[in-house]
User: Fold these one by one.
Assistant:
Number 1:
Amino acid sequence: MKPKVSDQPRGCNRAAFLQRNSDPGVLGQGMMLSAGNGVPSFTPRVVLELASDTKEEAITWLLSRIRDTQYNGGTELLVEQLGPGADAQEKENPNMFLVGATWQRLLSGAEDLGLFKEFNDGSMRAFTCANKYNFKDFKGDGDSFLSTAECQYIIKHELDTLRAKDETHVPGLSRVKLYPGKSVIRRLLSKGILIQVFPLHEKEELKRLSFAWYKKVKLSFQPLEDIRHYYGEGQALYFGFLEYFTFALVPMALIGVPYYLFDWEDYDKYVIFASFNLVWCTVILELWKRCSSSLAYRWGTLSRKKAFEEPRPGFHGVLGFNPVTGRQEPLYPNAKRQLRVYLVSLPFVLLCLYLSLYVMMIYFLMEGWALSVHDAEPTFWTGILCFIPSVLYAVVIEIMNLIYRYAAEFLTEWENHRLESSYQNHLVLKVLVFNFFNCFASLFYIAFVMQDMVLLRQSLATLLITSQILNQLMEAFLPYWLQRRRNKKMVRKIHKGKTLEDQELPLANQVRLEADMSTYLGTFDDYLELFLLFGYVSLFSCVYPLAAVLVVLNNITEVYSDAFKMCRVFKRPFSDPAANIGVWQLAFEAMSVIAVVTNCSLIGMSPQVKAYFPDSDMQLILWTVAIEHGLLAFKFILTFLIPDVPKHIQINLSRLEFESREALKKKKILEASEVTKAAQ
Amino acid sequence: MKPKVSDQPRGCNRAAFLQRNSDPGVLGQGMMLSAGNGVPSFTPRVVLELASDTKEEAITWLLSRIRDTQYNGGTELLVEQLGPGADAQEKENPNMFLVGATWQRLLSGAEDLGLFKEFNDGSMRAFTCANKYNFKDFKGDGDSFLSTAECQYIIKHELDTLRAKDETHVPGLSRVKLYPGKSVIRRLLSKGILIQVFPLHEKEELKRLSFAWYKKVKLSFQPLEDIRHYYGEGQALYFGFLEYFTFALVPMALIGVPYYLFDWEDYDKYVIFASFNLVWCTVILELWKRCSSSLAYRWGTLSRKKAFEEPRPGFHGVLGFNPVTGRQEPLYPNAKRQLRVYLVSLPFVLLCLYLSLYVMMIYFLMEGWALSVHDAEPTFWTGILCFIPSVLYAVVIEIMNLIYRYAAEFLTEWENHRLESSYQNHLVLKVLVFNFFNCFASLFYIAFVMQDMVLLRQSLATLLITSQILNQLMEAFLPYWLQRRRNKKMVRKIHKGKTLEDQELPLANQVRLEADMSTYLGTFDDYLELFLLFGYVSLFSCVYPLAAVLVVLNNITEVYSDAFKMCRVFKRPFSDPAANIGVWQLAFEAMSVIAVVTNCSLIGMSPQVKAYFPDSDMQLILWTVAIEHGLLAFKFILTFLIPDVPKHIQINLSRLEFESREALKKKKILEASEVTKAAQ
């Protein structure tokens, strides 16, 4: 099947690696020490950090298992211990290991993973070693065919699928039990032996990327291809969505500006704006699906089949046999999990929502009291008093959010989901609902209970602007400042008195520095922020048309701060070959459905509309409800009518499938006719 | 790849066929004449009827193409001309051909189609000839491994994929152009050369099936497996749905009876009934998805990949290259089709709906006038006059339905859809909307404009009962009566004076008799009927709780009349390996959403509820709307929470995929290590 690969003996590219290692841009000047003395003889891609008190026996076993051939159940990866830094301290953890792989191994890993690469004819096909010369960018074995993100992803996957054989426990660590066929790395992670696995930054590439991305302030698209190249598809999709979302809001912002400038308060103009908004929200969400599948097709994740998901590291249960794989693994009855979800988590979430409602009511009471005090006897101090409830409320909400977040993580962990994806979905749902409630409950109260449109507009503006500013500060500048301090300390420690750039740190120090950086926890918070902004724009758009303008401005700075955060603040994350934005698409769509309801009610409640039905409130409400139902129906029909995948990509996908079927059929007929001939 | 198949020379089972043919149950007594004398030397499965004036040259060419080996682009099927009947007439079409196939050919056809059969371990797998002995019911080559429906489906598929090679037109018929790679049979059908292709009934099997199905009146489930065996999955799914639907309505019927018996008119009881109804409708539709996927899994259609759809016979356009297959075929720009759909069909449908509304208004005017005449001076004649508007309206609606149906078919044909499925979807949508409107517009008018609940209940009962009776008559008994007359005539003609059973007709006469039977046009009308019944039950359930009882009774007789119709009235249809009920699932779900809206409004309008809000209509409406929105949200969440495929089937499916991946991986690693060893 793969004669071309095996024609060349394995490891023949060592010269290339040595040369690569001695490249000053990659590993720093003068770092080419002899192998075994702290610096590896291959391009290091991923770092494994074991607990500093891990027994030697366990380490030896793990390394030999990683180095063993695939035929013997190993991974055939290259792994070496990281030497001490230039200024070694006793506190330093000695058990840091660098992992790399030969090109042969990476290519065969890419085939195992079913990575899609561009074929000679421009279509995307699953990479196979037998066919490698037919792929567009494949020039030799040591070329840039695979991006560093892909190499790291392959190595991570290979490490993850390193399975226990007949060992019953980790040698030297009898408490860490192993089950045949289960992932060793996940077991070590869940037992705390393995502290972390992270991919290394590549200084030169990162410098180029950050220059193209955020260092020059200019009007241009983000370098999505480069982002994907360096961080993988999941990240690139987030930034693609951020960019798309910003552009999609521009028409709404443009239409919103004159409302602000000319102080339009006519009901018919608001109706026009709100209707446009509702249709527009539906259209942009549908078009994003098309856009996202175009990107995913171009990046080869659209039709890639997901590998079998392993249980997440924290999953526990009674030992049994997995009905799918037939392997021994802990099982946990689904019914029990459902009970936990519906009898504990759901009531807890509802209780928290009730609590949040309660806090909100207290806030309104306090504000009413402060206002009455101020109105009775207005002084400077009562003026300040008026601000206190808002500030208190904002602080309490922040604290509640934090506590709830921990509680949600704890509960979701306790629900004991087998798969990471199911864990993520449950966590996202919990956090989403609570955040939605916290952000918008007061606005809903003002809009529908107090029915005070002026106050609604004020609160909306205040909330939107303060949350934007706070977010930008909390998200990027605070961690950066902390990181910078740590960084400087390390540089100072090594080159006492000298002022040097980061990139001239020796490899060992660089690795340790990266190991200490904060871990990027995925795109969750970034999407959540966009989701809430979308809520501000869509839910009450007919009251505050300027919201879109503010969000557009925020998004433009968000691009820069997020980019900066990714490049400078966090550890490099493993790439995540996502094909779409997942559960967030659903969340945004749900928001746009709620927006139809709120906007229709707001318009129905406006005094100008009420003036049209002077005699009968009933008529007014019936009309409002009828129009709302019509809009909802229209939304669903629109969603149904716009195909999720653009025509030309559908054609490409069907062509690939057609070709593979035809080839199979032809092969079968040929074989049958040959056998018939031979029999005659 | 397939050594076992080719070990045995092809055609070695002729003895088995001869024996099969001489079996009196299959072909009738004394029918085993020598081959070539009208009766074929193989089991005939499918009949091709060519136009009686087709040139001999074209027939010869077609037969040789069908008989040619697959290697040469033929189908390797067996085909012979049908001889004259026992009482041949000049009017008879001589160009009737019987098609059959060897078992080898059928098995390799099953592999081509990717038919799923039960494996030794109880799971369903795609059949492959190489693996045939590992399938559960496979005992030899001439066994009952494939059902007759499957054999016929395979033969139809093989005939359909008989493609033109380098011929530019059909020999002898220069007007029938051929394009390389396009289906010959479809071309002949669209040009009217081929009149029909239909599968033959199998008298013995049909007798057994009809006995188990409808001949004994008993309380038991339908023989779904036998139905599937004889008619294929599409039919069996329809009958499965009919049965499921009937059972699902039983709880609603049981709850509805006391309302009728005790004349309950309390608002709270109605609210309970309506709420139960709404939740129940959602639940049964969701559970049907699970049920349907269980059936489809058992029948092996759930995970079968659809073959490439060919353009439908009527499709025309400018010659070009298909972007998927690269073959030359007529192309028709999508934009042009969209224009036709949105600028002609859509306005036409809306116009028809308007017309139907107009007719309805005339009906109400006439009825009002008749009532006023009757009230002014009640005599016997004015009493009759009161019925005239209803009768007229019913007749006009029937006529409009008929005309509209033709118009819809014409329009959908004119829209020039490339695929049969897309044609069907557009047709179903058009007919559905109009029928929905015709059936329910008057009820909506009575309910929401006249707000007369007593009249609503009366009209609902009248419409439901009359439509049921009419349907049963029109659908089964009328065609049966016509068929019976034709049948008797033929029997009388042959056995002058003798009274004999149908099955003793000679093969040639039997085939000609079947060719004259009405063609079964698919499950469309059957589903449409169920859809409208579902509407009667769900839309106004809180007004007329007895509707469910009536529908249950109707469905029980419907099972018998549909079964009877399938077995005795219509030509046998080709089996259709459906995995679900397709667009009808969507239609039923849409109906259940509309039901939430109508029921909430009906309850909100009821005087008892109004009495709860004596002061403010507004409060009442706001509450109604809020509850309606809550119910809709609950419905969507429920739909989302109930998984569409039962857990154990999901596990089975993933296990199959896991096994095939593991096998592939193992094969790859083994090969790689062998090559490495050889190199050393």
Number 2:
Amino acid sequence: MADVAGELLRAWADQPAVDHHCHPLRRWPFEMTAVELRGAFTEALDPQMAERHVMHTVAYQDAIRRIAGAVGCEATEAAILARRNAAEPGEYARRLLARTATAFMLVDNGFVTAESFTLPEQEQAIGIRQRQIIRLETVAENLIHDTNDPREWFGAVRAALRADVGRGAVGVKTICAYRATLKLQPVDTDALGVAFSAMRLRAQHGRHPRLSGGALCHALLFEAALECRELDVPLQVHCGFGDPDEDLAETSPLGLRPLFTEPDYRGLRVALLHCYPYHREAAYLCSVFPDVYMDLSLTIPFAGLEGGRAMGEALGLCPTSKLLYASDASRYPEVFLVAAAAHREALANALGELVDLGIMEAGTAANAGRRVLAENARRIYNLKD
Amino acid sequence: MADVAGELLRAWADQPAVDHHCHPLRRWPFEMTAVELRGAFTEALDPQMAERHVMHTVAYQDAIRRIAGAVGCEATEAAILARRNAAEPGEYARRLLARTATAFMLVDNGFVTAESFTLPEQEQAIGIRQRQIIRLETVAENLIHDTNDPREWFGAVRAALRADVGRGAVGVKTICAYRATLKLQPVDTDALGVAFSAMRLRAQHGRHPRLSGGALCHALLFEAALECRELDVPLQVHCGFGDPDEDLAETSPLGLRPLFTEPDYRGLRVALLHCYPYHREAAYLCSVFPDVYMDLSLTIPFAGLEGGRAMGEALGLCPTSKLLYASDASRYPEVFLVAAAAHREALANALGELVDLGIMEAGTAANAGRRVLAENARRIYNLKD
Amino acid sequence: MADVAGELLRAWADQPAVDHHCHPLRRWPFEMTAVELRGAFTEALDPQMAERHVMHTVAYQDAIRRIAGAVGCEATEAAILARRNAAEPGEYARRLLARTATAFMLVDNGFVTAESFTLPEQEQAIGIRQRQIIRLETVAENLIHDTNDPREWFGAVRAALRADVGRGAVGVKTICAYRATLKLQPVDTDALGVAFSAMRLRAQHGRHPRLSGGALCHALLFEAALECRELDVPLQVHCGFGDPDEDLAETSPLGLRPLFTEPDYRGLRVALLHCYPYHREAAYLCSVFPDVYMDLSLTIPFAGLEGGRAMGEALGLCPTSKLLYASDASRYPEVFLVAAAAHREALANALGELVDLGIMEAGTAANAGRRVLAENARRIYNLKD
């Protein structure tokens, strides 16, 4: 760690961060296995990856090192599991999360199970303010059974978004990338009608309707974009890599262009999540469209040293007023810890390089970092202390 | 700046450059505003970007530093504006442009207004030799009113290109990327006829015909390619990023493949402009097709440290006999200054790294730089002193 | 070369490598020309590239330096040619190949001429164990004449693959990227029938049938994938850059997704070859699908410093248990030498950086390198000593 980067990290030590995209913690107590720990640092779904390959990734080795440093044990998987499984889980979680210096967690709770904390429980358990990010597709799937056509359905979805925002939700997130290409196509009313009927029929037969395909997902995304614009809340869009349910070739944020150029969406704030390996493309969008924002969550810490490189590459075109911090962590405090530490280091290294080269003064770099860690998110999500 | 890079920069101090792609200066005198200075270092068209975000880009901060260094004032926007607005504009412009060490400016004057210098005026005002690059689409739009079908239109366009080259123009530039995808498609005669008629009708109703869509733009591009080949002048192609009128997803130079593989175009020299984030792809094309060239203009200086990284990445596959220098600057001498300085530094750093690693000798690196700065362009544009 | 990287190189000095993808050597004696030496370090097919541009590439300059170092002559093309043309060719080849520390060469002999060694001749001539990789398209083209429909043809191809594996071949390689897009499409039985008939007709008229187009190539690839899975041998897929017969835009490994997600291919081991500039995408595939592997052959050493950068970028997501070593060399011992040396250095630098940053211990890094150089390939190709 270069000297300048170290100074930046120290300057930010008292800077609480806004984690603008994360997921609920797993309800404790539970006993954590090695496969679970490995599974927490990979996007692979196939258990063979955790069994045979995750331990050979840079991301996992770096995670082990960081967790061991934080809990004060030997830097091995076994030592970490022993330490965490012997600890009082609430105290352990709070200790790790305290090191993330997080003021707000904006939580996408669209994929929760009985073992997830609810947001109020989580706020109570860890003492960090929680705000909901609404998972669009979950809301939409739950409403299909009770509506008769796409128009009714969209109306019900938009009413649900309004209600959730009325109850304190601060944004909407779409996982369209997992269900269709992100190359948005104009709505085809006929195809939409057919796809809706098919999905509704499944719902009426008691099967959970899984939203998928461009006809449904794009039309829904456009409706949600209109509603977010009216509600003055950001729309978060999963872009770039993720688990293998998505086809990475179809997840470039460049496909979202209609949201940035069509007058109907003017003023809509869009936050591009993850982005890798399309982070250069995402940074371009941030550089020409006033209401586009991006983060490098998931990329940091899952992509090893590529996380830091992506940070540097993103700051080529992306203004520091457009970059956001997120952990994309879920379930385990360890992931929040690793994401936060790696993110601050990547940011300090990227900005530190600019100071070293004489392009930025140290004070400017420190302010830029505060913007990324908290101020940009406070502004675009209208967070009040 | 490493020692070797510094030595290279000193070795090139007396090397006049050929700026193979730039735009006219704004006719002085004029009073420059902060928003104009910011607007000169972004591809954004929305004024909100200049108002709220450009000052948070690495490119702008670096530009401020470089301009302040050149004019000898404090490194702030306000100090620069005060200094330049108080100066005698002609003397000020010549002083800044002298620092770019430019022997020839190849000027795309396809997008000029009453406040742009003409080329003879500009040569007179700044004392640097000017050569015209013909903007294909501007020529073609101006000729549509007087032609009756695509064949006549293409004939008129080709005659106009011949006439301009006869009067001293040294190349043709296409902005197809702003009007259609760059994924070139074979000409569809029927679609071409329909699109031509529609555009001609608009022209006959007194509206400016704006060329757009693949049917027209690709057919025109193929005709221009044939004519450039016959005239023995290069065809410049805007690739990669630019202002948001283009869809970045459609601007990869790989889409130009028919120009490189079809026998009709054999011998046509093609210069890929800008390229980012497709510079690795552009470098590949330069490595396998003998008459393909590339530059990193716009990327340097608009993409911050990515400009230097793109230089290093391009030199992975691109021979130094294929890389060209351009500023892509327009309107303000400050942009020419910043582009030239940043470009030489990026080149020195990339070649210096090769010297440091023992792959290139210092003399070889110095020669490679002279090739990029001037000799390659002199050769492919047939420039005579 | 940083200290840690140097230590890693020394640690691997006694580690024989498995070159999991290369081509036959040219039968000696022969006199090598400058154009041949240059042509050995470029993917260009047009002789103008070797005549005018290859000497201006980083790859060639680096190759000259490395060869000169190995044979102990001045670092010029002329000195190298003089030295090698004066040497006893067998002794010369063995000396250069010994420096590659290769235990096994897995040889794709699908593109051989009368001047290529056969595998037994090559093993005899150089004393390195040879194993065959079957070139799918060559086998398939040779069988078309004797079959009456696609089903018969696929049956014959699969029987031939089984027979070759029975005789010791250890894998199958497809050059689908040179003949069709790699964006695999489901088989269209009608289109397949038509394309087969057309190709068979050419064969019956005595012309060599050249397999091309998605209908034939994708259907064949799917059949080969099924057979490889049954035979328990890996399928090698050319991805990313290569000679200009391919359209680079169509060669991303992401297009192979059906091979990774469809249950029919479950357990099939796929080795992505070359990958650049899609190595980040390839690394992603390696990170989520248990049986996907990749290499950076060709990229190293043809892409200059980009080879090392690609190594670092690939190790962002790709586990070290998934990365393979290959030279992709052919014809000349010099290419094997340069590829091997550059590959080890790139690996040492990438892993050394992780050690420097405290993410990996030196011993872990050394083991990771052994995995990449040999162990991963031994495992997935079932190589026995």
